[in-house]
Amino acid sequence: MIRPAPWLLGVGLVLAGPATVAGQGPGTPWEMPLRAGPAAPAARGEARLQFAPSPFGVAVTADGRHRYDVRITAENLPDPATLGPYRVLLAWETPRDLSTWHRLGVVRNGTSLVGTADHNKFLLVITAEPDSLVTTRSGPTVLHGMSPSGWLQQFLTHPLFRGMSQ
Amino acid sequence: MLLLIALGCTAPLAGQDHAAMGHDHDGMAMDMPIPMPKGMVMLPGLVGLTPPVAPFLPGMVADPAGLPSARPSQVVALADGDTLDLTAGLVARTIRGRTYTMYAFNGQVPGPMIRVARGATITVRFHNAIDLESTVHWHGLRLDNGSDGVPGLTQAPVEPGGDHTYTVRFPDAGIYWYHPHVREDIQQALGLYGNLLVDSEDPDYYAPANREQALMLSDLLVHHDTLIAFGREAPDFALMGRVGNVLLVNGEPEYRLDVKRGEVVRFHLTNVANSRTWNLSIPGVPMKVVASDVGRFEREEWVASVVLAPAERYVIEARFAEPGRYPLLNAIQAVDHYRGEFEPQVDTLGWITVGSRPVRPDHASSFAVLRHNTDVTAEIDRYRDQFDRAPDKTLHLTVAVSGLPLTTVQFMSVDTAYYHPVEWVDGMPEMNWLSTAQQVRWILRDEATGAENHAIDWTVRQGAVVKLRLVNEATSFHPMQHPIHLHGQRMLVLSRDGVPTTNLVWKDTVLIPVGSTVDLLIDAANPGAWMLHCHIAEHLGAGMMATMHVVP
């Protein structure tokens, strides 16, 4: 049996550490902390993902992407009019390469069910906008966060996997 | 080894055709003791290791040349009071030109489809002609407890060469199935499964269809010309369950169906795989879901695909309006735990060919209507006053491990930042293969008492309505979804993570994603000692089971 070098255990523990520290990673696949944007530094919020309604309990697209209802709980959100010519705060779903922006729904202080997200990994961005029907994001960012799946990490090149048989 | 690492880093997995990843094992990246998806490397610290159990394959002492060839399933229509002889035996099965020694009921894969009228009672004389102890469990039926087929709870296991007689009654219309309840990880994977189709006395129970098809979905794990051996003393693949790389519909790798233009086909779908959850679709063909485990939904719904966890059943109706060839697909997003990315995978399970001649009668108008089954709603209404009360019982779903290879432990410790709520394929085949039920203990833990698995021995009164909360812990060593099955009763899925279910159906198996909390309402109407367990065969083999006694 091939034995690992003793230092590897230490590497593993060090790597494992951040994932278990509160605030560093999601406690479940459903929780999505949100960070304030510079336009609204006092804003606080979090999003919770839940499978969208489905007769199967687990909601997916035909190609297998999970479909999540996004519920945002926020406080200290600014009046959008104080940020410029804006009337609403809108939530958007965008993949990590920001190639497309899917408008979800209006966000208010308290809890708002804003719509359904279905990217494997996505960013959730809340911006101030002129109205709730705009199709492109134009206003300042108030809150933003990353889907829990964004915590999936690339491990292949890590020494943990190179040193085992040396 | 560095070369292998480099290959693993550079091989473009994203967007690859899954025909080269799982369904077609000719695309394997390298010669490993188990098949590895293309581009995936075996972790250096695991090279050369094997599961700490003796290998087992069926019929090791049998001459495959002398075995009968497996035959397709036949429908056996039985009337109330009839008797069926059912033998589990060895067969030779040829899949993609390669012949394996496997199991079958009455020489058929799937086993005979037993078709009966609701309310019937039949006798099944079971003979065990395989080389393992066995039983027959009648999945989903609210039958008499003595015939439930659970060794150590309702009967002694049937030794090789032995017999057992079951009295099977069918109180509910719908699609059910039968399978062994001993080492399901081996016996079910190798062909011991069959459907039970129970017809309602109501001719309008379902909307009209031109044809019915029962599809039993399974998979098989093979490497080159051989089956991957099973653990003799205990199941291997204990972490995630055995996920096969040859996908099968009714035991065959390529499903075929010819229909006329405009046909409405009612598909009775049953997932008999050890661990795989499916996402089935027929692109370009409208489908609606009409029923599940123990009857119809309150309301039919249009669906783009069908999610089917182990042991679940769904009844789907599809209309093929235009001539052409339509694929039956399984499309999922796999998690590549090494690269930290999702990988789309699409397997073509078969083809449906639609001819140009129109079907008669044409059910287009009735198919266009989504029915609201008011009788189902009315019956469920009797239970609604129980929906909002506090749970009677809460079970936590978790896992404990000991003695796994250090590399596995280390990798898992760094891979805990995120777990997908549903793992659709085996994203870590070598670590999974090396884990056995001697090292992995999947756990049901009673929140009130701390009792685990076999030590959970609830007693409830017959006629009670039990609210059960299942909490699938997201912070264990290896969180995973669990299809939880309750024997002999029916249940409603009231809510998921606090969100009420708005279209109810009676179930016997419910999928609990990672990190989810699901509330169930159990109609404890059927007396006896009944198992509640995870239907991933290896999780069951690793202890994930409890008992509920329903007493008069």
Question: If you had to describe this structure to a student in words, what would you say it looks like?
Answer:
The complex is a heterodimer of chains A (166) and B (552). Chain A has 166 residues and is mostly beta strands. Chain A contains two helices and eight strands, in the order αββββββββα. Chain A has one domain (30-147): Immunoglobulin-like (Sandwich). Chain A is 11% helix and 33% strand. An eight-stranded antiparallel sheet of chain A has the order 5-4-7-8-1-2-3-6, with no helix packed on it. In chain A, a hairpin with a 7-residue loop joins strand 1 (31-36) and strand 2 (44-51). The longest helix of chain A is centred in the first third of the chain and has 15 residues, at 6-20. Chain A is globular. Chain B is mainly β and 552 residues long. Helices cover 8% and strands 42% of the residues of chain B. Chain B is globular. Chains A and B meet through helix 1 and helix 2 of A and helix 1, strand 20, strand 21, strand 23 and strand 24 of B.
